[in-house]
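Give me the fold.
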Amino acid sequence: MPSPAPYSLAGSRASAQPREAAFYRDPYRFYDAVHAEAPTFFWENYDHWCFAGFDEVNGLLRDKRFGRQILHLMSREALGMPPPKPHTAAFDLTEKHSLLTLEPPAHTRLRKLVNRAFVSRNVEQLRPRIARLANELIDGFEADGGTELLRAFATPVPAIVIAEMLGLPAEMAMQLVSWSNRMVAMYMFGVTYETELDANQASIEFMDYVRRTMDERRRQPREDLLTHMLTSEVDGEKLSEEEVISTTILLLNAGHEATVHTTGNGIKAILESGLDPRALFADDAQTEATVEECLRFDAPLHMFTRYALQDVTLAGGRSFRQGETVGLMLAAANRDPRKFAAANRFDPFRADGQNLSFGAGIHFCIGAPLARLEMQVAMKTLFERLPRLRLAGEPQYRNIYHFHGLERLDVSW
Protein backbone atom coordinates (compact mmCIF):
# COMPACT_ATOMS: atom_id res chain seq x y z
CA MET A 1 0.00 0.00 0.00
CA PRO A 2 1.52 3.39 -0.98
CA SER A 3 2.34 5.78 1.86
CA PRO A 4 -0.03 8.72 2.35
CA ALA A 5 0.84 11.90 0.49
CA PRO A 6 2.94 14.28 2.65
CA TYR A 7 0.87 17.26 1.53
CA SER A 8 -2.70 18.42 1.05
CA LEU A 9 -4.06 20.33 -1.91
CA ALA A 10 -7.54 21.82 -2.08
CA GLY A 11 -8.29 24.06 -5.00
CA SER A 12 -5.39 26.47 -5.26
CA ARG A 13 -4.33 26.20 -1.60
CA ALA A 14 -1.64 23.76 -0.52
CA SER A 15 -0.14 22.61 2.74
CA ALA A 16 3.18 20.76 2.91
CA GLN A 17 5.74 20.74 5.71
CA PRO A 18 9.22 21.34 4.24
CA ARG A 19 10.90 19.75 7.30
CA GLU A 20 8.99 16.44 7.10
CA ALA A 21 11.22 13.66 5.76
CA ALA A 22 8.47 12.24 3.56
CA PHE A 23 8.28 15.63 1.84
CA TYR A 24 11.86 16.84 1.48
CA ARG A 25 13.11 13.42 0.38
CA ASP A 26 10.67 13.41 -2.53
CA PRO A 27 8.96 16.74 -3.19
CA TYR A 28 8.18 15.63 -6.74
CA ARG A 29 4.97 13.91 -5.66
CA PHE A 30 3.77 17.32 -4.52
CA TYR A 31 4.89 18.93 -7.78
CA ASP A 32 2.98 16.31 -9.79
CA ALA A 33 -0.15 17.21 -7.84
CA VAL A 34 0.15 20.95 -8.30
CA HIS A 35 0.91 20.54 -12.03
CA ALA A 36 -2.25 18.48 -12.36
CA GLU A 37 -4.51 20.67 -10.22
CA ALA A 38 -3.08 24.15 -9.56
CA PRO A 39 0.27 25.19 -11.12
CA THR A 40 -0.22 28.53 -9.35
CA PHE A 41 -1.07 27.94 -5.71
CA PHE A 42 -0.98 29.50 -2.25
CA TRP A 43 1.46 27.58 -0.02
CA GLU A 44 0.03 28.04 3.45
CA ASN A 45 3.20 27.01 5.28
CA TYR A 46 5.15 29.81 3.59
CA ASP A 47 2.16 32.21 3.46
CA HIS A 48 2.70 33.27 -0.15
CA TRP A 49 1.72 32.36 -3.70
CA CYS A 50 3.92 30.01 -5.70
CA PHE A 51 4.35 29.30 -9.41
CA ALA A 52 5.26 25.82 -10.68
CA GLY A 53 4.80 26.07 -14.47
CA PHE A 54 7.92 26.37 -16.63
CA ASP A 55 6.71 29.30 -18.71
CA GLU A 56 5.37 31.16 -15.67
CA VAL A 57 8.56 30.71 -13.63
CA ASN A 58 10.75 31.59 -16.60
CA GLY A 59 8.72 34.71 -17.26
CA LEU A 60 8.67 35.89 -13.65
CA LEU A 61 12.42 35.41 -13.26
CA ARG A 62 12.81 37.91 -16.11
CA ASP A 63 10.00 40.26 -15.04
CA LYS A 64 11.57 43.49 -13.75
CA ARG A 65 8.43 44.29 -11.77
CA PHE A 66 9.66 41.63 -9.32
CA GLY A 67 12.98 41.75 -7.49
CA ARG A 68 15.11 40.21 -4.78
CA GLN A 69 15.17 43.36 -2.65
CA ILE A 70 12.31 45.48 -1.30
CA LEU A 71 13.63 47.54 1.63
CA HIS A 72 14.93 50.18 -0.79
CA LEU A 73 11.27 50.86 -1.65
CA MET A 74 9.30 50.06 1.52
CA SER A 75 9.96 50.15 5.26
CA ARG A 76 9.94 47.10 7.51
CA GLU A 77 6.91 48.52 9.26
CA ALA A 78 4.94 48.83 6.02
CA LEU A 79 5.89 45.27 5.11
CA GLY A 80 5.07 43.88 8.55
CA MET A 81 8.65 42.64 8.94
CA PRO A 82 10.12 42.31 12.42
CA PRO A 83 13.19 44.42 13.23
CA PRO A 84 16.63 42.93 12.52
CA LYS A 85 17.79 40.40 15.12
CA PRO A 86 20.90 41.53 17.03
CA HIS A 87 22.15 37.94 17.29
CA THR A 88 22.25 37.57 13.46
CA ALA A 89 23.97 40.91 12.75
CA ALA A 90 27.09 39.29 11.27
CA PHE A 91 25.09 36.98 9.01
CA ASP A 92 22.96 39.94 7.87
CA LEU A 93 26.13 41.88 7.05
CA THR A 94 27.33 39.09 4.72
CA GLU A 95 23.99 39.39 2.88
CA LYS A 96 23.90 43.19 2.75
CA HIS A 97 25.87 43.50 -0.50
CA SER A 98 25.15 40.06 -1.93
CA LEU A 99 24.62 39.81 -5.69
CA LEU A 100 21.75 37.46 -4.89
CA THR A 101 19.76 40.19 -3.16
CA LEU A 102 20.84 43.47 -4.77
CA GLU A 103 18.84 45.19 -7.47
CA PRO A 104 20.15 47.63 -10.13
CA PRO A 105 22.11 49.82 -10.18
CA ALA A 106 24.12 48.29 -7.30
CA HIS A 107 23.67 44.78 -8.73
CA THR A 108 24.80 45.89 -12.20
CA ARG A 109 27.95 47.51 -10.82
CA LEU A 110 29.00 44.49 -8.73
CA ARG A 111 28.16 41.91 -11.37
CA LYS A 112 30.09 43.79 -14.04
CA LEU A 113 33.22 43.58 -11.90
CA VAL A 114 33.21 39.81 -11.30
CA ASN A 115 31.49 38.63 -14.48
CA ARG A 116 34.70 38.54 -16.54
CA ALA A 117 36.11 35.69 -14.47
CA PHE A 118 33.08 33.50 -15.12
CA VAL A 119 32.42 33.91 -18.85
CA SER A 120 32.69 30.64 -20.74
CA ARG A 121 35.92 31.42 -22.61
CA ASN A 122 37.77 32.13 -19.35
CA VAL A 123 36.21 29.24 -17.46
CA GLU A 124 37.24 26.83 -20.23
CA GLN A 125 40.88 27.45 -19.31
CA LEU A 126 40.19 25.64 -16.02
CA ARG A 127 39.37 22.34 -17.77
CA PRO A 128 42.86 20.80 -17.30
CA ARG A 129 42.92 21.78 -13.61
CA ILE A 130 39.48 20.27 -12.98
CA ALA A 131 40.46 17.04 -14.76
CA ARG A 132 43.71 16.78 -12.80
CA LEU A 133 41.91 17.42 -9.51
CA ALA A 134 39.21 14.83 -10.28
CA ASN A 135 41.85 12.21 -11.09
CA GLU A 136 43.88 13.01 -7.96
CA LEU A 137 40.81 12.58 -5.76
CA ILE A 138 39.92 9.24 -7.40
CA ASP A 139 43.55 8.12 -6.97
CA GLY A 140 43.05 8.64 -3.25
CA PHE A 141 40.14 6.22 -2.86
CA GLU A 142 40.13 3.93 -5.91
CA ALA A 143 41.91 1.09 -4.11
CA ASP A 144 39.34 1.12 -1.26
CA GLY A 145 36.59 -0.45 -3.36
CA GLY A 146 34.01 1.99 -2.02
CA THR A 147 33.56 5.46 -0.51
CA GLU A 148 31.07 8.12 0.57
CA LEU A 149 31.21 10.06 -2.67
CA LEU A 150 29.98 13.49 -1.53
CA ARG A 151 32.83 14.12 0.86
CA ALA A 152 35.45 12.22 -1.12
CA PHE A 153 34.69 13.68 -4.56
CA ALA A 154 31.60 15.80 -5.21
CA THR A 155 32.40 18.43 -2.57
CA PRO A 156 36.18 18.90 -2.95
CA VAL A 157 36.13 19.48 -6.73
CA PRO A 158 34.05 22.71 -6.81
CA ALA A 159 35.22 23.88 -3.37
CA ILE A 160 38.90 23.71 -4.33
CA VAL A 161 38.33 25.23 -7.77
CA ILE A 162 36.47 28.32 -6.49
CA ALA A 163 38.94 28.74 -3.62
CA GLU A 164 41.86 28.73 -6.05
CA MET A 165 40.11 31.18 -8.39
CA LEU A 166 39.83 33.62 -5.49
CA GLY A 167 43.43 32.97 -4.53
CA LEU A 168 42.82 30.90 -1.39
CA PRO A 169 44.80 27.73 -0.62
CA ALA A 170 43.25 24.39 -1.59
CA GLU A 171 43.77 23.10 1.95
CA MET A 172 41.28 25.73 3.18
CA ALA A 173 38.51 24.41 0.93
CA MET A 174 36.82 22.09 3.42
CA GLN A 175 36.89 24.76 6.15
CA LEU A 176 35.18 27.12 3.70
CA VAL A 177 32.58 24.40 3.07
CA SER A 178 31.99 24.04 6.82
CA TRP A 179 31.36 27.77 7.23
CA SER A 180 29.12 27.72 4.17
CA ASN A 181 27.03 24.77 5.40
CA ARG A 182 26.46 26.46 8.76
CA MET A 183 25.38 29.69 7.04
CA VAL A 184 23.13 27.97 4.50
CA ALA A 185 21.18 26.43 7.39
CA MET A 186 19.59 29.89 7.76
CA TYR A 187 17.50 29.15 4.67
CA MET A 188 15.78 26.18 6.29
CA PHE A 189 12.08 26.39 7.02
CA GLY A 190 11.48 27.11 10.72
CA VAL A 191 15.05 28.07 11.67
CA THR A 192 15.79 27.69 15.39
CA TYR A 193 17.50 30.23 17.63
CA GLU A 194 20.45 27.84 18.01
CA THR A 195 20.83 27.60 14.22
CA GLU A 196 20.79 31.39 13.97
CA LEU A 197 23.52 31.68 16.60
CA ASP A 198 25.68 29.08 14.85
CA ALA A 199 25.20 30.67 11.42
CA ASN A 200 26.12 34.06 12.88
CA GLN A 201 29.28 32.64 14.47
CA ALA A 202 30.22 31.00 11.16
CA SER A 203 29.71 34.38 9.47
CA ILE A 204 32.04 36.08 11.98
CA GLU A 205 34.74 33.46 11.40
CA PHE A 206 34.32 33.57 7.62
CA MET A 207 34.48 37.38 7.48
CA ASP A 208 37.54 37.48 9.74
CA TYR A 209 39.34 35.05 7.44
CA VAL A 210 38.42 37.04 4.31
CA ARG A 211 39.55 40.31 5.94
CA ARG A 212 42.93 38.82 6.84
CA THR A 213 43.35 37.56 3.30
CA MET A 214 42.34 40.95 1.89
CA ASP A 215 45.04 42.61 4.02
CA GLU A 216 47.58 40.18 2.59
CA ARG A 217 46.50 40.97 -0.98
CA ARG A 218 46.79 44.69 -0.38
CA ARG A 219 50.39 44.14 0.70
CA GLN A 220 51.14 41.54 -1.96
CA PRO A 221 48.74 41.61 -4.93
CA ARG A 222 48.37 38.44 -7.02
CA GLU A 223 46.74 37.34 -10.24
CA ASP A 224 43.54 36.16 -8.55
CA LEU A 225 39.91 37.20 -8.30
CA LEU A 226 40.22 38.65 -4.80
CA THR A 227 43.01 41.00 -5.88
CA HIS A 228 40.94 41.92 -8.93
CA MET A 229 37.99 42.92 -6.72
CA LEU A 230 40.25 44.97 -4.44
CA THR A 231 42.04 46.87 -7.20
CA SER A 232 39.62 47.24 -10.11
CA GLU A 233 37.17 50.07 -10.62
CA VAL A 234 33.64 50.12 -11.99
CA ASP A 235 32.38 53.48 -13.25
CA GLY A 236 35.37 55.14 -11.57
CA GLU A 237 34.68 53.59 -8.16
CA LYS A 238 36.37 50.80 -6.25
CA LEU A 239 34.36 48.33 -4.22
CA SER A 240 34.09 49.00 -0.50
CA GLU A 241 35.53 46.50 1.97
CA GLU A 242 32.01 45.32 2.86
CA GLU A 243 31.20 44.77 -0.82
CA VAL A 244 34.36 42.72 -1.38
CA ILE A 245 33.67 40.59 1.73
CA SER A 246 30.03 39.94 0.76
CA THR A 247 30.97 39.08 -2.83
CA THR A 248 33.85 36.80 -1.79
CA ILE A 249 31.64 34.87 0.64
CA LEU A 250 28.83 34.61 -1.92
CA LEU A 251 31.20 33.29 -4.60
CA LEU A 252 32.70 30.76 -2.20
CA ASN A 253 29.29 29.60 -0.94
CA ALA A 254 27.43 29.58 -4.25
CA GLY A 255 30.56 28.41 -6.07
CA HIS A 256 30.31 24.97 -4.57
CA GLU A 257 26.83 24.51 -3.06
CA ALA A 258 24.77 23.93 -6.21
CA THR A 259 27.52 21.95 -7.94
CA VAL A 260 27.89 19.55 -5.01
CA HIS A 261 24.14 18.91 -4.90
CA THR A 262 23.76 18.49 -8.67
CA THR A 263 26.77 16.20 -8.90
CA GLY A 264 25.47 13.98 -6.12
CA ASN A 265 21.88 14.04 -7.36
CA GLY A 266 23.05 13.40 -10.92
CA ILE A 267 25.26 10.43 -10.06
CA LYS A 268 22.36 8.96 -8.06
CA ALA A 269 20.01 9.43 -11.03
CA ILE A 270 22.48 7.80 -13.44
CA LEU A 271 23.09 4.81 -11.17
CA GLU A 272 19.36 4.32 -10.54
CA SER A 273 18.45 4.68 -14.22
CA GLY A 274 20.20 1.53 -15.38
CA LEU A 275 21.59 3.43 -18.37
CA ASP A 276 25.11 2.68 -19.59
CA PRO A 277 27.41 5.52 -18.44
CA ARG A 278 29.63 4.90 -21.47
CA ALA A 279 26.76 6.08 -23.68
CA LEU A 280 26.00 9.06 -21.43
CA PHE A 281 29.56 10.38 -21.68
CA ALA A 282 30.42 9.09 -25.17
CA ASP A 283 31.52 12.48 -26.50
CA ASP A 284 31.49 16.16 -25.52
CA ALA A 285 28.00 16.82 -26.89
CA GLN A 286 26.46 13.87 -25.06
CA THR A 287 28.36 14.72 -21.88
CA GLU A 288 26.86 18.22 -21.99
CA ALA A 289 23.39 16.78 -22.60
CA THR A 290 23.76 14.36 -19.69
CA VAL A 291 24.74 17.16 -17.32
CA GLU A 292 21.82 19.31 -18.50
CA GLU A 293 19.45 16.42 -17.80
CA CYS A 294 20.95 15.99 -14.34
CA LEU A 295 20.28 19.69 -13.73
CA ARG A 296 16.70 19.38 -14.98
CA PHE A 297 15.80 16.09 -13.35
CA ASP A 298 16.87 16.78 -9.76
CA ALA A 299 17.69 20.46 -9.38
CA PRO A 300 19.90 21.77 -6.56
CA LEU A 301 17.68 24.76 -5.70
CA HIS A 302 13.93 24.23 -5.46
CA MET A 303 12.47 27.63 -4.64
CA PHE A 304 13.64 31.19 -5.20
CA THR A 305 11.53 34.09 -3.91
CA ARG A 306 10.83 37.52 -5.36
CA TYR A 307 9.12 40.68 -4.07
CA ALA A 308 6.61 42.62 -6.13
CA LEU A 309 8.38 45.95 -6.61
CA GLN A 310 5.10 47.64 -7.52
CA ASP A 311 1.43 46.70 -7.70
CA VAL A 312 1.32 44.04 -10.43
CA THR A 313 -1.45 42.29 -12.35
CA LEU A 314 -0.22 39.31 -14.34
CA ALA A 315 -1.54 38.21 -17.73
CA GLY A 316 -3.72 35.53 -16.12
CA GLY A 317 -5.41 38.15 -13.95
CA ARG A 318 -3.74 37.41 -10.61
CA SER A 319 -2.72 40.59 -8.79
CA PHE A 320 0.00 41.29 -6.23
CA ARG A 321 0.50 44.34 -4.06
CA GLN A 322 3.88 46.02 -3.78
CA GLY A 323 5.95 44.15 -1.21
CA GLU A 324 4.19 40.78 -1.58
CA THR A 325 6.41 37.71 -1.86
CA VAL A 326 6.05 35.10 -4.60
CA GLY A 327 7.76 31.72 -4.73
CA LEU A 328 9.25 30.54 -8.01
CA MET A 329 9.46 26.74 -8.00
CA LEU A 330 12.54 26.03 -10.13
CA ALA A 331 12.56 22.26 -9.68
CA ALA A 332 8.81 21.97 -10.24
CA ALA A 333 9.17 24.02 -13.45
CA ASN A 334 11.85 21.57 -14.59
CA ARG A 335 9.29 18.74 -14.27
CA ASP A 336 6.39 20.59 -15.96
CA PRO A 337 4.57 18.00 -18.12
CA ARG A 338 3.34 20.80 -20.39
CA LYS A 339 6.98 21.52 -21.26
CA PHE A 340 8.70 18.13 -21.11
CA ALA A 341 7.67 14.76 -22.51
CA ALA A 342 7.76 12.12 -19.74
CA ALA A 343 8.86 14.88 -17.37
CA ASN A 344 9.54 12.47 -14.48
CA ARG A 345 11.82 10.23 -16.53
CA PHE A 346 15.60 10.71 -16.41
CA ASP A 347 16.47 10.84 -20.11
CA PRO A 348 19.86 12.28 -21.12
CA PHE A 349 18.94 11.76 -24.78
CA ARG A 350 15.84 13.97 -24.72
CA ALA A 351 15.52 16.81 -27.20
CA ASP A 352 13.57 19.08 -24.83
CA GLY A 353 16.29 19.43 -22.22
CA GLN A 354 15.97 23.04 -21.07
CA ASN A 355 16.07 23.79 -17.36
CA LEU A 356 15.74 26.71 -14.95
CA SER A 357 18.16 25.37 -12.35
CA PHE A 358 20.43 28.41 -12.66
CA GLY A 359 17.55 30.88 -12.79
CA ALA A 360 17.01 33.46 -15.54
CA GLY A 361 17.06 37.21 -16.01
CA ILE A 362 19.48 39.57 -14.28
CA HIS A 363 19.99 37.13 -11.40
CA PHE A 364 20.92 34.20 -13.65
CA CYS A 365 23.69 32.35 -11.81
CA ILE A 366 26.99 34.04 -12.63
CA GLY A 367 28.84 30.77 -12.00
CA ALA A 368 26.72 28.62 -14.34
CA PRO A 369 29.49 28.14 -16.97
CA LEU A 370 31.92 27.04 -14.24
CA ALA A 371 29.39 24.69 -12.59
CA ARG A 372 28.56 23.08 -15.93
CA LEU A 373 32.23 22.56 -16.77
CA GLU A 374 33.00 21.09 -13.33
CA MET A 375 30.16 18.61 -13.61
CA GLN A 376 31.00 17.63 -17.19
CA VAL A 377 34.66 16.97 -16.42
CA ALA A 378 34.24 15.45 -12.95
CA MET A 379 31.35 13.12 -13.78
CA LYS A 380 32.87 11.91 -17.06
CA THR A 381 36.19 11.24 -15.29
CA LEU A 382 34.48 9.41 -12.45
CA PHE A 383 32.55 7.00 -14.67
CA GLU A 384 35.55 6.41 -16.94
CA ARG A 385 37.82 5.63 -13.99
CA LEU A 386 35.23 3.54 -12.11
CA PRO A 387 33.07 1.80 -14.76
CA ARG A 388 31.66 -0.64 -12.17
CA LEU A 389 30.38 2.17 -9.93
CA ARG A 390 27.16 1.25 -8.10
CA LEU A 391 25.12 2.36 -5.11
CA ALA A 392 26.13 0.77 -1.80
CA GLY A 393 23.21 2.03 0.26
CA GLU A 394 20.00 4.01 0.03
CA PRO A 395 20.89 7.67 -0.72
CA GLN A 396 19.38 10.09 1.80
CA TYR A 397 18.55 13.73 1.16
CA ARG A 398 19.53 16.49 3.58
CA ASN A 399 16.85 18.19 5.63
CA ILE A 400 17.06 21.50 3.79
CA TYR A 401 14.17 21.77 1.35
CA HIS A 402 15.34 24.86 -0.57
CA PHE A 403 18.75 23.29 -1.29
CA HIS A 404 17.90 19.80 -2.48
CA GLY A 405 20.93 17.59 -2.05
CA LEU A 406 22.07 14.33 -0.55
CA GLU A 407 23.36 13.79 2.97
CA ARG A 408 25.37 10.75 1.85
CA LEU A 409 26.07 8.90 -1.38
CA ASP A 410 27.70 5.57 -0.53
CA VAL A 411 29.07 3.75 -3.56
CA SER A 412 31.23 0.75 -4.36
CA TRP A 413 32.89 -0.69 -7.46
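The CA atoms of residues 115 and 217 lie 20 Å apart.
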